[in-house]
Amino acid sequence: MLKKIKKLPYTDRLNYCVNKTAKRLCEIIASKQSNLCLSADITDSEKLLNLVDRVGSEICLLKTHIDILSDFDANFLIALKVLAQKHTFLIFEDRKFADIGHTVKQQYAGGLYKIVEWADISNAHTVPGPGIIQGLQEVGSFKQRGLLLLAEMSSVGSLARGSYTQASVKMAEDYTDFVMGFIAQRQLTQNPGLIHMTPGVQWHQVDDSLGQRYILPEQAILENGTDIIIVGRGIYQASDPLLEARRYREAAWEAYLSCC
Ligand code: 5BU
């Protein structure tokens, strides 16, 4: 017998979000009826933009790995922003910052990618301690960005578990003006203002050959209590990515509604 986790509708949850990007994300989720994030791990910018234009109607959030693009230039970001406006989704750069505050501040604001300029959301490991949040916040809060903490990972043998995960939750609760939630495999806090996003979601596979471990969309939301599913290969490797994105969106949305 499935034990369902109780949730508030996103239209109510946004009232609990301290972070502005979290509020905006809740609004988009509610209006598009989509708690689906596409992980667009494509290395060619034109192909990536075509994919995003095709499935943009189905997603609330687009997750990028900007450093895997083989032909990155600033025009790509302009085109991506145009698509984000056209389809109304936010952009999440899955940068996984992991250094001391002083260094991550420079990585967030500068370098080739200037992530803070265009990514509404980014994420950080908690292994360095709260200084990583403070460093990123010095750059990000000025632009009202949101940060997700990596409290758990989807991969086999991940060390982000137990007391590490609990300490990450405590860190988030200490910085709710900038930290908007978690990357995790399940709900970690009852605080409705913090959003849980779960990667490693797919219907057709249980794992890949490099340690990725998949769960089903329904399992992620109904059993584990997450808020947003992150799907990559399950969508962009499908023969019809739009149809597949729509199926993931509908499944994740129905699952969430049934918890409300
Ligand atoms: P997939 O194709 O759906 O397996 O892609 C998953 C994406 O989520 C990929 O970009 C990973 O880098 C990302 N990811 C993950 O799979 N597991 C994690 O714990 C974290 C990120 Br954090």
UniProtKB/TrEMBL annotation:
It is an enzyme of class 4 (lyase). Substrate binds at residues 41, 63, 154, 212, 232-233. The keyword Transmembrane does not apply. Keywords: Decarboxylase, Lyase, Pyrimidine biosynthesis. GO terms for biological process: 'de novo' pyrimidine nucleobase biosynthetic process; 'de novo' UMP biosynthetic process. Catalyzes the decarboxylation of orotidine 5'-monophosphate (OMP) to uridine 5'-monophosphate (UMP). This is Orotidine 5'-phosphate decarboxylase. It comes from Candidatus Rickettsiella viridis.
